[in-house]
Amino acid sequence: MTAALSGLRVRVRGIVQGVGFRPFVYALAVRNQLTGWVRNTSHGVEIEVNGSEPQLDAFLEALQNQPPPLARIDTLETVVINPDRFTRFEILESQADPNDFIPVSPDMTICPDCQRELFNPQDRRYRYPFINCTNCGPRFTIVKDIPYDRPLTTMADFPMCSECGAEYHDPLNRRFHAQPVACQECGPQVRFEAGGQQLAVKDAAIKMAREWLKDGKIVAIKGLGGYHLACDATNPSAVDELRLRKKRSDKPFALMAFSLEQIEQHCLITAAEQDALTSPQHPIVLLQRKPESTIVPGAAPQQMNLGFMLPYTPLHLLLTEPAPGFPSVLVMTSGNLSEEPIAYRDDESHERLDSLADAILQHNRGIHMRVDDSVVRIHRGKTYPLRRSRGYAPDPILLPVDNPSLLAVGAELKNVFCLTRERYAFLSHFIGDMENYETLVSFEEGIRHYERLYRVQPKALAADLHPDYLATRYAIQRSQEENLPLYQVQHHHAHLAACLADNGWNNDEPVIGISFDGTGYGTDGTIWGSEFLVGGYDGYQRAAHLKYVPLPGGDQAVRKVSRMALAHLWAAGIDWEPELKPVQALCPEERAALTGQLKHGLNAPLTSSMGRLFDAAAAILGIRQTATYEGQAAIELEMLADPDEDEIYPFPFSDGIIDPEAMWSMLLKDWQAGISVNKISARFHNGIAQMTVDVCARLKKIYGANTIALSGGVWQNMFLLNKSQTLLENAGFTVLIHHQVPANDGCIALGQAIVAGRQFI
Ligand code: ZN
Ligand code: ZN
Ligand code: FE
Question: Suppose 689 and one of 70, 76, 594, 723 were both cysteines; which one would form an S-S bond, judging by CB atoms 3.0 to 4.6 Å apart?
């Protein structure tokens, strides 16, 4: 006699498509002798199962507790239904509901199974550079629309051969419904091109690219989310040439090596860093450089850290495979001119890359969305993101509470935009600095794509207060065209809200947000950047900040560090002594013009920027007088700080104003007395850390706040972060820092979205 049948309808939401979820359900149902079906819908996965109660319980238990490695279950609803008369369990065709949505999986690093097959001469995909399965491979970069099925990806151009088709249709196969499944016979192929000629295809193309790299040439490599520029990282002339062609004077290049063992020859790797390097995302991880490393200094000038990643596609594995005489480390920097977005389309590759690379290792699998590599560092054993992109985007961030459907357009630098819907914040991949037309186009295309993908029709828009940000202008125009309410959110308030959301914060207790960064438009029309804001998602009070100084030339002061230093001294009433390096860096005419500018406030808006205070200190100490990228002088100042120094410079604080004058006097006295730059830098950092805890102690008395949220690009200074965090924690504060999104302006859209969402009813 058979047990009584029960029926169950199960709806699963989360990251459940393109991650092997249906075959997993199929295998689980068959194992528990259940009948019924499973299918993808546009809001997730739907299952109907019939069986005995114990079988159903076992099924549900495993469904919740042993999902496939890349899956993420956000909600699971079950409804008891009358059992139907199924004779078996089957996987049904996808059903699209035009209004609903499901999260799309990010692109995933090649899995261990595929890696084994790649290097197994017996395997039919031996050395096939596009091998993948349900647990790995391209996703977001090839998806044109949902549901995630092959015809809606760039793999639609490649009809499967019979062997791939058999694997694709076999529910118990590792490649069941793996949309990008392919092989040598039917899938994409690589080719090697130089001087307008195709010189080799398939394995020979990879071999030729390796020969050229070995010879010190620069080769553009088409990867997952765009092109990289590669060269031998131990070859000084190759690295110099790449730097010259890219017009990227000092920013560090990312590096790639075949294995952890090879990275270990150049860097120290802690256990947590190893976990990050080998995680499914395979981000670039900033590691401490070993003195004996043979990587040329030009790959990362003036840096103590090197940014390393492991190969994340089969093509990268074949490219970096160790061999006698082959470089152990490759530079793998994004394939673009400095500041432009990464190149990703075949038709633009020659136009954009021919002046940069000697040759191109090309392939014919289309990239629908460009995605840059992600960058993280490990801080106190946890991920501290610097750029959230490949492998992470477009995974949604789960919000503490529901948010209305809206679009937040983000900031000007390191732009990322954000769409929210219910409890999801779809934070885009890294768009970049919105300083040129190319990036603006990339931003607009990205927004359209995400809105289509997630079926989000924004009911409101959120933007920065800065009237000249290209992103803000886009939002203003769109709000007029589509008659949507626009919420302009103060930059440092967005930092505070982003840090709270990043930590799942969900209560009304006031928090002290310490937003230290370079630039943010203030409500009084000045440029803020050292803000102690007390409040939360719903609002804030500006409780303390650095005393205003003029910013000569406005945004130009970012590059002209010596002028910033002189502006700071001028504001502190300190003479420009001729022996000071920033004084020497300017000719008498420039100094006279600068004096006039400062006195009359001509093109010299006021600022409380913390970033500029660091720049000024670096210039006064003679570290550098001009910067080629924002924050460069500050980063070099940090690198010099002596960790064993514990003296501090004072930052007196009254009526919410932090005055750096006393600090400047002592710093100059030390410098004139010949105290080492290392000690002075440390005293400067120590002083700011001590100031943060002193100010917080005072604000705690006034506002009763005991939680501190640290956000803003200055918190990427690890010397300052470590010191401040320790002091604040020792003083009994709870300190929130970023873990999912960067502390820099890559977090702004998230903060804007929540602040605006609270105001929108
Ligand atoms: Zn795989
Ligand atoms: Zn095939
Ligand atoms: Fe900022």
Answer: 723
